[in-house]
Amino acid sequence: MGIIRSSIILRPYxxxxxxxxxxxxxxxxxxxxxxxxxxxxxxxxQNDIIKFMYEKGEEISFDxxxxxxxxxxxxxxxxxxxxxxEAAEIMIDKKQPxxxxxxxxxxxxxxxxxxxxxQYYASQIRGLQKTEEYMTSPAITISKSDSLINAVKTLVEKxxxxxxxxxxxxxxxxxxxxxxxxxxxAIKYKECKINVSEVMSPNIIVIDAGEDLASAxxxxxxxxxxGIPVVKGDKLAGVITTxxxxxxxxxxxxxxxxxxxxxxxxxx
Length: 268
Prior knowledge:
Blueprint: E1 9-10, H1 16-25, E2 30-34, E3 40-45, H2 46-56, H3 67-70, E4 77-79, H4 84-93, E5 98-102, E6 108-113, H5 114-124, H6 131-134, E7 141-143, H7 148-158, E8 162-167, E9 170-176, H8 177-182, H9 184-187, E10 207-208, H10 213-223, E11 227-232, E12 235-241, H11 242-248, H12 252-265
């Protein structure tokens, strides 16, 4: 299956307000920034927007900030023939949230994000790895009665995209950068009185630590989500994310497994 997706294209002179609206309306976590000829200049993610708004605070306005001021410029361009395992290796080793897929003349054709590699894993691999082998543990949690600003502070300082919301050790929901994007204007104000319970996603699925990692990958791919809380019994054990699944693709067992499947199917 293909791992390359089309991307919404932003220009460096677009405002942050415009970029935020587009990302919300199109429900996309990341976008490529190009010049008028289609050559990539950078990339913009939900995390970039949230971090910028939190750090700059009340001194800035969405409609007076340009994408060029917020975008990340340390992008990596790859050829459209890139192998999924090679893409995973580059993303993990270089700590990239996305890869820009470019034509031979250097123009942006699309992008690869970790959700694409998670979907690849879900479609190709079965019974090889357990969720608990690759989950991030412990999960970073927050109380539903905590303030939105404290939640954003935690996300920025821990450099994560989600917090698991708990109440007396019971999982109540998640708070993600997608949820926060809708609240971005409020993040500016450090005295904001909004609580986590008013913003979080309350409908949540969990997966057992002993489950096949392919089951977790399939859940994330089908639900179009980037992370799932992992439980052992009735206790929160960690969280499995698209980053974790991408990391799992680097395991030598995966390379051997895919090679054996290729050799087996090529005999028919």
